[in-house]
């Protein structure tokens, strides 16, 4: 049995979902093999299966959500290249990255996006779902460390390979 101590968060368990609210709002679906109990601002987790991996991963998701509802998770994505333009219309992000057609991504309703000249700032309550969306962005145009063109995260790991002839 694991437990999480809450400070100021409002909590509600209804129809298999856990709702949390502080500054922002978040919800998670409770897996079938986990039982949640709430007593005096403490969440108790009990796993019905003999495998503890579901319990531990669900515990991590709840802890990440608790951080996200107090202050949003934030990732900064940079793009560099001649003629690269990114703009937002309604709930879609348009990426002009040197292809013949512009790439269009639908922005999920749980992600807030701010676009400036060379960077995109993504904010969300959910850390894992934002990571999936950032991966979609990064796969559209991979960063080339030699030409310094493409889409990359705030601190890119530049993998330059040097091979010696034999």
UniProtKB/TrEMBL annotation:
What protein am I looking at?
LSU ribosomal protein L6p (L9e)
Looking at the UniProt record for this protein, which Gene Ontology cellular component terms does it annotate, in alphabetical order?
A: ribosome
Ordered alphabetically, the record's keywords are: Ribonucleoprotein, Ribosomal protein
Q: Quote the InterPro entries the UniProt record gives.
A: Ribosomal_uL6-like_a/b-dom_sf (IPR036789), Ribosomal_uL6_bac-type (IPR019906)
Query: Has keyword Ribosomal protein?
Result: yes
Q: GO annotations under biological process? A: translation
The UniProt GO MF terms for this protein read: rRNA binding; structural constituent of ribosome
